[in-house]
Amino acid sequence: MNSDRIVAKELLQINAIKLNAQNPFTWASGLRSPIYCDNRIILSFPNARKTVTKLMVESIQSAGLNPDVIAGVATSGIAFGALVAEAMNLPFIYVRSSAKKHGRQQKIEGRFEEGQSAVVIEDLISTGSSCLEAVHSLREEKINVLSVHAIFTYRFDLSNKNFSEANCNYHCLSDYPNLLEEVLENGSMKTEEIQQLKSWNQDPVQWSESFTQRQNSN
């Protein structure tokens, strides 16, 4: 089993990812979605935590990257970034979504120097917008961002477009297509439900609108 499937299986087993096409979840944006991903749950499971950390380090090393520092994206990327930094014996910093309102009013916490290179760690990539804000903040401080590494991505076309426009490479341990392969193989969902999951990934907005319309008509 490849690492993509290993991570997908792990996330399903610990309920970090939940799937429900019949009664979808509501995201913060208001969109209805048949999937909800909360990778912070990984931190409560030592074996899953070790697996994710090990594979994250291997993904960085196999890409031939040699960062001076590991940077986590607040808040969900902080713990995973710290675990990766510890495993690689590297300094760790993290990037806030906005500068502190008090003290030194910093947006980047931790010690770093201009000209250093960094690998950015995130837990989940949907559109990539919040992660790329962190990349922008690091670049403003003259830190060379080598790549973004995350645990899971929905593999939206928009995320690929956003990272391409930002001229930033990214790598995820697992993604939505591998998740669906794992679900299909373990037989936990019916074929028609899996088809709904596939159609959501192709156009999440349209899927959400169609579901809402069906609910309103009932």
Our count of helices gives: 8
Separation, N- and C-terminal Cα atoms: 43 Å
Describe the main β-sheet briefly: 6 strands, mixed
Q: Would you give the CATH topology?
A: Rossmann fold
Which whole number gives the mean pLDDT? Answer: 93
**Poorly predicted sequence stretches spanning 5 or more consecutive residues:** none
Strand order of the largest sheet: 7-6-5-8-9-10
Q: Determine and state the CATH class.
A: Alpha Beta
What share of residues are in beta strands?
A: 15-25%
Shape: globular
Fraction of residues in helix? 40-55%
Q: Any idea what the radius of gyration is?
A: 18 Å
- The H-and-E topology, N to C, reads as HEEEEHEHEEEHEHEHHH
Number of E-state strands: 10
Account of the 3D structure:
Helices cover 45% and strands 21% of the residues. It has helices at 3-13, 46-62, 76-88, 129-140, 157-165, 176-186, 191-202, 204-217, and strands at residues 17-19, 25-26, 32-33, 35-37, 69-73, 92-95, 108-109, 117-125, 144-153, 170-175. By secondary structure, the protein is α/β, with parallel strands linked by helices. The protein has eight helices and ten strands. It has one domain: 3-Layer(aba) Sandwich (Rossmann fold).
What's the helix and strand layout?
Elements: H1 3-13, E1 17-19, E2 25-26, E3 32-33, E4 35-37, H2 46-62, E5 69-73, H3 76-88, E6 92-95, E7 108-109, E8 117-125, H4 129-140, E9 144-153, H5 157-165, E10 170-175, H6 176-186, H7 191-202, H8 204-217
Parallel strand pairs: 5-6, 5-8, 8-9, 9-10
Antiparallel strand pairs: 1-4, 2-3, 6-7
Helix pairs in contact: 1-2, 1-6, 2-3, 6-7, 7-8
